[in-house]
Design goal:
Blueprint lengths: L1 H11 L5 H10 L4 H11 L8 E2 L3 E3 L5 E3 L4 E2 L3 E4 L4 E3 L4 E2 L4 E3 L1 E2 L4 H6 L4 E2 L2 E3 L4 E2 L4 E2 L4 E2 L4 E2 L4 E2 L7 E4 L4 E5 L23
Parallel strand pairs: 1-4, 2-5, 3-6, 4-7, 5-8, 6-11, 7-12, 8-13, 11-14, 12-15, 13-16, 15-17
Antiparallel strand pairs: 9-10, 17-18
Family: Belongs to the transferase hexapeptide repeat family.
Organism: Ralstonia pickettii
Keywords: Acyltransferase, Repeat, Transferase
Amino acid sequence: MFTFMRYLWLMARGPSSPDAALHFFNNSGASKNKKGRVLKRAIPGLHKRCTVWAPLRLERPDLLSIGAESFLNVDVTIANGAMVSIGERSFVGPGVKFCTTYHHVDPDERARDPSAMAKPIVVGNNVWIGAGAILMPGVRIEDGAIVAAGSVVTRDVESRTVVAGCPAVFKKSLKKSEPIATAFAAGSKNQGAAAT
């Protein structure tokens, strides 16, 4: 009963704060549809036809954009000191981490200036990011690319390619007619798995 009343209150009072909406989204026992409506109303960068599953860890709701028909699975972390943009029809597996912030590499410089810096992360259309992958500051994943599960992406990923590993490296190109499901077919060794 409390969850339903909280939902009605959040919807009736107009746009809620992103923090309140995120708390409701992650902690209420409401249905996925109700939680999604509250979240999308509070975070304007979410397309009305994207799907996000709880829990979601999000540092800056104002620096997030997710396109139509894209899907974020459970336990996604978006540590975004800079913009994170996800295109249309892209899939993000469980436990994926988007890390836009970084510090100076040189220890003397880091001691003088401990503040964090940030670079945006851009994910194109029709991208598949496998479970547990980590995307580092400033990377761009082009349209149709696949990032295998557990990969650490430190460089841009070209369109219609598969990358895997730590750090993620090129494994193969995808043909125009090749369905994503065959990207990891028998005979292509050491490619990991892009399970979601």
